[in-house]
Amino acid sequence: MSDHWFRHFSKSGISNYIRVGDGRGRWRTACGSINEIKLPKFARDKIIILHEIAHSATLRTHPDAAWHGPEFCFNFLMLVGRWLGKEMKEELWDCMRAHRVKVMGSEKKTRRKKQLSSAQLAALARGRERLRQKREAADKVHEFQENNV
To answer: What's the CA gap between 149 and 26, in Å, rounded?
Structure first.
């Protein structure tokens, strides 16, 4: 992991290595911080290890980010893709999308226009015509008031 880690997640003043603790006293959860991850025996699985490394990566690149926010999700996806393969990354990405999980960089930049049916287009045209007529009537009232002041 070192070449990938050094290129993407190392910052000056922060150790380039993550210390791995055995997780003694952590019988329920694993945990990750900027320079250390702690893994109880049950958590010594590739996906959990990558999850904790993603926390360290996120703390290095976005120190103020939410604990499981879009930045973390992006880093987790990238690590899963690199170490567990493209298929696993796509499966995780599909799961994140299904549950509406926000991932950094996945926001749509442009909004797609909705395709309207002919009935909807006709109703829209009628509404625009009514609006035009109301504006003309308001302009006539305004003009009449100005001329009779």
So the answer is: 83
